[in-house]
Write a structure and sequence with these properties.
By secondary structure, the protein is mainly alpha-helical. It is built from three helices and no strands. The protein is globular, with a radius of gyration of 16 Å.
């Protein structure tokens, strides 16, 4: 059986390179920072086996409904649980 590690490293570095190219078209430094945050959240979802669309839909709704700032760590992709309430 082939070792999948080299492919994973290539795949991860390729995503970073593509992201770097996309940041050129962000419009501003702040825009690029926001895109980097989004890419980081999506990559973390991917690494933790979380559906990014379900995650973002749930978390954005929670934030709009006043999720407590002191509990933000509970809605990070590695700890997120659908249906968790305030």
């Amino acid at each position: 059986m082939r070792n999948p590690q080299p492919y994973r490293r290539y795949s991860s570095s390729r995503r970073v390179a593509i992201g770097r190219k996309n940041y050129l078209f962000a419009g501003s430094d702040k825009g690029a920072e926001r895109i980097a945050v989004a890419y980081t959240l999506l990559a973390t979802c991917h690494m933790n086996g979380v559906n990014p669309q379900a995650y973002l839909t749930d978390v954005i709704e929670k934030l709009q409904n006043g999720w407590p700032q002191a509990r933000l760590d509970e809605i990070l992709p590695d700890r997120w649980q659908p249906g968790l309430t305030r």
